[in-house]
Amino acid sequence: MADEGIKAVIDGKDITSTTPEDYLIWSKYYNLKALDLDASWPTSVTIPASTYNASYTITHSLGYNPLYNLFFKDQSGRIVHIPGQSTDAYATRGRILSETVNAITVRLGHSVNTHTSDRIYEVFHFIYVDPNSI
Amino acid sequence: MSLDYGIKATKPGFDANTATDKNLSFTSKMRSMMVRSKGIATSASFNFAHGLGYRPAFDGYIVDSGRYFLNYFSAPFDGYSFEYTGTYGDIYTDTTNLHCEHASANTLVYICYVNPGDDGSGAISIAPVKDYGFKISQTGKDVKTAEDSELVLSSKFQSPLIILQDSITVNIDAISANPGETIQKTNFTDYSHGRPQANHVIAPDIFGSGAFFNFSTEPTGFGPDYTAGDAEMYIDATKIRLRVSRIAVSNIGSISLPATTFTVKFFLTNIPLPT
Description:
The complex is a heterodimer of chains A (134) and B (275).
Chain A: E1 7-9, E2 23-26, E3 30-31, E4 33-34, E5 44-47, E6 53-59, E7 66-73, E8 79-82, E9 84-85, E10 92-99, E11 103-110, E12 119-131
Antiparallel strand pairs in A: 1-2, 5-12, 6-11, 7-8, 7-12, 9-10, 10-11
Chain B: E1 8-10, E2 24-27, E3 31-32, E4 35-40, E5 45-49, E6 56-64, E7 67-69, E8 90-93, E9 97-101, E10 108-116, E11 135-137, E12 151-154, E13 161-172, E14 175-177, E15 182-192, E16 199-202, H1 210-213, E17 225-235, E18 239-250, E19 255-257, E20 260-272
Antiparallel strand pairs in B: 1-2, 4-10, 5-9, 6-7, 6-10, 7-17, 8-9, 11-12, 13-20, 14-19, 15-18, 16-20, 17-18
């Protein structure tokens, strides 16, 4: 098998190392490659007043289930994981509701449902071109 | 003008001239994740001053007796019979800090990325430790002036490399609950990862997504009858363990859950977790 490609080691490590932990990049292994933000993807989701939750769908159209890393900005301006829970006044939670080979649907919800006006949350996503498959 | 230059490398066994994006180990066309820093929260309320100027993306773990649990936060569906019995934590980023909050010190582990978790406005570059290496900017950005957040790759930062990908399967027997009963079952499977330490592992499906648990009816809490389930996953120096628990509660009629096989795909990186 061909032994070619590119590699770079962490400062102080030997470029002949066979230990993957020593490498910044090594084309023998792949790194996660994030899709550029698509103009059609949602960047916010609104939970209407007195409503517990709202969903939004990211349609990536890859044709397979990709790896991803998702976040939302809570009502205190902090970035929180999806799935995960914020410590803002509404204890906002985010979770993956469903996945298909072309889309990921996420739901944000309030554990504390005391808001009397709409709540708008910004969402941020890393959708990787790398398949979530063996 | 659309620029068509850069570098790419395929995964072993693919032709760089014809490989699709998913079969590339690296391409300058797409952003790579770059690790700004990693560490352990050494106090119950801990700040890591990331110095990036925006809200960076991150990952986190709860560490307990050498086991790194992926669900550092309270899981969306509360679990049962899980091995981590302590309190969950909270990790978030703002434009100044990555913040870790937990009842105890030395419990939360974080990986802070260079990649913005927001729109990246206000970016500040990190001063290099050494003045050599390489970097590649995003399309349309001048590599000489691009901020770190505008790079697709830089030798100033380590990019997580996927060194192992596989799956773990857990079987749960059928569950039947008669009126007034609460029946719970749990099971786990271990996977020997073969590395000399616990590395950062990615497994996006373990937290009760529809794709994983396949609920026929989404659990809504404490109605007359409900079924729920949850998963716990951790990595230690020798293995990855996946545990799944399911519960059936019946207040009125009977509930029968068929035997179920749960499979989680995971991706092991070359990033050792802090000890």
